[in-house]
Structures are given as structure tokens and as C-alpha cells.
Design a protein that fits this description.
The protein is an alpha+beta fold and 282 residues long. The protein folds into two domains: 4-175, no CATH class; 181-274, Beta Barrel (OB fold (Dihydrolipoamide Acetyltransferase, E2P)), CATH 2.40.50. It is built from eight helices and eleven strands. Strands 2-3-1-4-5 form a five-stranded antiparallel beta sheet. Strands 7-8-9-11-10 form a five-stranded mixed β-barrel. The longest helix is centred in the first third of the chain and has 24 residues, at 21-44.
């Protein structure tokens, strides 16, 4: 049987404080589930219908570092097809995509993907939103210790030579997941589209004055959005691809803002979009 694996390290940064066992276990269970489900989807290019993840993609506990609240674990893939797919894309790309999906589930801007990871992600366009929906509850579970004790938790991918930090969760990412509110009044922003999924209408945009991108979706069913509005998103993404700053074109977008408990915007629910009017030169 072909078996492949990826090594990870989970660290609860509690300093000299003891970690509540129940909260710590729930946090680890959340990480285990989110990582295994995401990996299963990446390697099979489908979202399994059952509530749990496949028996052939499992997180296995390894030796823990006593007293440091670090837990080593191994993601083991025993299905021959998924194992072959992992060997083809590599552990690094898999880790990039795990990070991408979990960051998206937390409304956090993911790190830039390599070309190889982008290529794999493009083949998942039809199921991308389903993957994020599927892991959303697990990602909430990941935050148990951060919500209860405010401890950050760091995930790293381990190799023989060094460890690579993938992402960190903390009280700020926790605030993006619970008790979100949506503004009743709409706002207008000028923005560029930085990522767009033509199957779902979801994507990311960079509003004028912001330094990070924010996810967006349309407020109603995507099937009901006018074709002319749908076309604006990929057109804007294409028009701004590798152009000088002075040549960037923006869209005028009307949206309702979804906010976290700190009042920060975590997502735009788009009501309408248009190209800004160009003044005629006399």
C-alpha cells in the first residue's frame, strides 16, 4: 500500500501558564479535522459528502515536547491515488493550499501562492467555496484555546532541515469567526479585484486606502446577478494584471459590510458594481 505523509508541529504559546486540557484537546481536534478535510479535498478534487473526512487521510499524533505545549503530528495518506497526487504536487504545495483554505475560512488574507500552488487551486475552482464551508466549524474549534485563554497557536510544517511557519491563530482571528454583524446601510468603495471565482462569484478585492485584500461575494444568489455585472469582475482582474500603478483601473462597488466584534470589515456583500465614469477631455 502506498503511504505518504507530511509532518507538522502545533504550538500553543501559553508562556509559563498551564493549558486547560479540555480546551487544548478541542483546539487540536479542530486543527486535525480542518487539515485532514482540506487535504482530502485537495488530493481528490472533490468534497466528500459525509460529515467526517476519509479514513485514508488521517492526522496521527507523534511525540510531544514535554512542558512546551508543542505537539508533533503526522498527516498520513494511505489511499494510493491521493498518495500519488501528493507526490506529484509535493508537501510544500499541499501546505500552501491548506494555509490558503484555512485563512479564507478565517477571513484572513492568505499568503501569496506559488505558481504551482495557483495551478492546483485553479483546478479546484468549482469546489473552492464548498471546501471553505466544509471546514468552517473545524476552524472555529481550532480557536477554543485562543478564545478562552487568549493564547496564540502556531502551525508549522516540519522537514529534516527546518520548520516552516504556515499560519497563526489568535484572539484577532477568533473575532472574525463569532458574532459577526452585517451593516444595514450600504457603502460605496473604489476597489480592484485581486481574485475571482467565476463559478461562485466569490473573490477578493483591494479597496482604495486599504493595505490588505478583503473577501467578497454577491448579496443574493449568484445566478440572479446580471451578466454585465458578472463580467466586470474578471475583466477588472485581467485589466490590472501586471500593469503599472498609474494604469490600474478601479470599480465602483456598492456593498453591505460584514464586521467582526472589533468593527473591522471582514467581508463585502456586493449589491452592485460599475466602471467609474470617464470625464471627456475638452
Amino acid at each position: 500500500m502506498a503511504v505518504t505523509d507530511v509532518d507538522f508541529e502545533l504550538k500553543i504559546e501559553s508562556g509559563a501558564n498551564l493549558v486547560d486540557m479540555e480546551y487544548g484537546l478541542e483546539t487540536m481536534t479542530g486543527f486535525s479535522g480542518a487539515i485532514a478535510i482540506t487535504t482530502d479535498c485537495i488530493l481528490s478534487n472533490e468534497v466528500p459528502s459525509k460529515m467526517s473526512y476519509s479514513d485514508n487521510v488521517r492526522a496521527k499524533l507523534m511525540g510531544a515536547c514535554i512542558g512546551s505545549y508543542k505537539q508533533d503530528f503526522k498527516l498520513v495518506i494511505s489511499d494510493p491515488v491521493k498518495s500519488a497526487n501528493l507526490k506529484r504536487i509535493g508537501n510544500s504545495v499541499l501546505s500552501e493550499l491548506i494555509t490558503y483554505f484555512i485563512c479564507e475560512a478565517m477571513y484572513v488574507e492568505p499568503p501569496a501562492l506559488t505558481k504551482k500552488a495557483e495551478k492546483v487551486l485553479s483546478k479546484m475552482e468549482k469546489i473552492e467555496s464548498k471546501v471553505i464551508d466544509r471546514i468552517s466549524e473545524r476552524v472555529k474549534d481550532m480557536h477554543k484555546i485562543s478564545r478562552s485563554n487568549k493564547y496564540p497557536v502556531v502551525l508549522k510544517r516540519k522537514t529534516k532541515l527546518r520548520n516552516f511557519k504556515l499560519f497563526e491563530i489568535n484572539k484577532n482571528t477568533a473575532s472574525n469567526l463569532f458574532n459577526l454583524t452585517t451593516d444595514s446601510n450600504s457603502i460605496e468603495i473604489d476597489a480592484i479585484v485581486t481574485r475571482f471565482n467565476s463559478f461562485t462569484g466569490n473573490g477578493r478585492l483591494l479597496a482604495d486606502g486599504d493595505s490588505v485584500t478583503i473577501p467578497f461575494s454577491f448579496s443574493g444568489p449568484y445566478s440572479k446577478v446580471k451578466a454585465s455585472t458578472k463580467r466586470l469582475m474578471p475583466e477588472n482582474l485581467h485589466d490590472n494584471n501586471a500593469v503599472a500603478d498609474e494604469l490600474i483601473t478601479r470599480l465602483k462597488i456598492t456593498a453591505n459590510a460584514k464586521r467582526n466584534t472589533s468593527g473591522d470589515i471582514v467581508k463585502y456583500m456586493i449589491l452592485g458594481a460599475s466602471k467609474p465614469l470617464v470625464s471627456a477631455c475638452g
